[in-house]
Amino acid sequence: MNTAQPVALTAALKTYPHTAAIKDGTLNDPRVVLTCPDVEPIYRAFAPMARQQKYDVSEMAIVTYLQAKAYGKPLIMLPTVVAARLQQACIVYNARHRKMTVADLPGARVGVRAYSQTTGMWVRGILADTYGVPLEEVQWVSFEDSHLAEYRDPPWVRKAAAEQRMLAMLEAGELDCAIFGNDLPSADGILPLIANAAEADSRWYQEHQLVPPNHVVVMHQDVAERHPEALRAVYDLLKRGKAAAPPETPANRLPTGSEAMRKALALTLDYCQRQQLLPRRLDIDEIFADSLAILGAAGH
Q1: Which tens digits make up the pLDDT trace of 154-207?
Q2: Rounded to an integer, what distance in angstroms lies between the CA atom of residue 49 and that of residue 58?
Q3: Phi (first) and psi of residue 192, to 5 degrees
Q4: Side by side, which strands form the sheet with 157-159?
Q5: Which of 220, 183, 179, 180 lies closest to 60 in space, CA to CA?
Q6: For 253, which DSSP code?
Q7: What is the pTM of this model?
Q8: 91-208 in CATH: which number?
Q9: Which CATH architecture is the domain 7-84+211-299 placed in?
Q10: What residue segments make up the domains of the chain, in order of their start?
Q11: Which tens digit of pLDDT belongs to each residue from 47-80?
């Protein structure tokens, strides 16, 4: 009989259909007890986790994790995605000032919350690959620093003043376009830059056969190595959460397992490298080495 006490962990996770039952304890595992602090918006957990490992387990933007890995932070990525979306509706412009298309982007002023924001990475990569936009000819304007203190934006990125706000600048015509994530505005005149974005996303999906991942889950390396059964338990809970999610939710489109994630990671790494988001080149095997050493075959 197993008499081991469960490992108590703090876990910063957003409430999704596939994580709600984990957070409220409906889905549980005898190997762990999870305490889930309320962090809203969830990206406010990313910098403390990347810089100080504030939590035992945390949701994290995939670019933040890759930067943390490249800078040697003690984090292990579990081979599962908890948030993903098709991205082409995320870049918008203010039609009250002028009509714009993708062809107008060279020389345009484009805001993004942080240059290292994962949504921004995906939008820029798609603009370059699908539409041929020369990214270095765009005037990128950022409003926040990277979640990693070591990272510095490339020279073609300008930092907005501390008092400036992206939506207000877009509405005032001080920005030509802006990239938003979950906070996509619905104000009058704010329109997607890419016409028929849903159709464009559908074509992109047919070509690439993946939904661009935004958020993964990471664990403090020291905790994982001291309590490997806890890492296995958290991974199992995340898989069970996806399996138990209502069928109308997109949880079944979120890859789980290292093999399922390899295609998405290959494109993510390529986009990050080309956009100067990483201080050194990473490879996929390096990313999965730590988690698979603990998960073994269960990680595939």
Answers
A1: 999 999 999 999 999 999 999 999 999 988 998 889 999 998 999 999 999 999
A2: 7
A3: -60, 135
A4: 157-159, 139-142, 109-112, 177-179, 91-94, 190-192
A5: 220
A6: G
A7: 0.95
A8: 3.40.190
A9: 3-Layer(aba) Sandwich (3.40)
A10: 7-84+211-299, 91-208
A11: 999 999 999 999 999 999 999 999 999 999 999 9
